Amino acid sequence: MPTARKPGVRLREWVPVRNHQSVVIPNVYVNFVTSGDVQRRAPLPSMWWRVAGGQWKRARLTWAWNSPTTPHASQWLSSNLELGNLGPHATKWIEVDTYFPAHSIKGAYYQSFLDHSHSCSPAAAINMYQAGLEYWPWHGLEGHPA
Q1: Rounded to whole angstroms, how far apart are CA atoms 61 and 78?
Q2: What is the mean pLDDT of residues 35-62?
Q3: Residue 124: which domain range?
Q4: 72 phi and psi, to 5 degrees?
Q5: What is the dihedral of CA 52, 53, 54, 55, to 10 degrees?
Q6: Taking the model in full, what pTM does it have?
Q7: Whole-angstrom distance, CA of residue 34 vs CA of residue 105
Q8: CATH number (domain holding residue 39)
Q9: What CA–CA distance (Å, rounded) separates 55 from 68?
C-alpha cells in the first residue's frame, strides 16, 4: 500500500478501466471515492489524474460527511473524470496521484474507482477497482491530525 511518511509526498496509483465486451462503450467516465475512518473533516488531499501519457488534470473533490454515528462512511467524492469512448476488449490506464497536506488525519484511506458510461445502452456495464493509501507520518496518533 503506498504510504506517505510526511505531507506533500506523491502517492501514485494505476487504475485500469476495462471493456470486457465486444462493442464500443461510448462516453466512459470514472468517479472515485476516498474514505477512511475519519472522525472529523480533514484537510482536502490534492488529487491529479491522467490517462496514461496524457495531460495531468486536477480532480475536484467534495466532502460528504454522514454523521457522528457513522464517521467511517464519510468520504471525499470526485467529479466525473471523462475518458471518451472505450473500444471492444480495450483497457485504458489512469494514473492517479494523491498528496496529503500537513495536518491530514493519520491513517489508512481506501479508494473505490467506479467506471461507467453516460450511455443507457446494455453495453454500459459498471466496473469497480479498489485501492488503498496511507498517510502515516512517524509522529502523531492514528485518527488525529499529523
Answers
A1: 5
A2: 82
A3: 3-135
A4: -65, -15
A5: 110
A6: 0.82
A7: 13
A8: 2.60.40.10
A9: 39
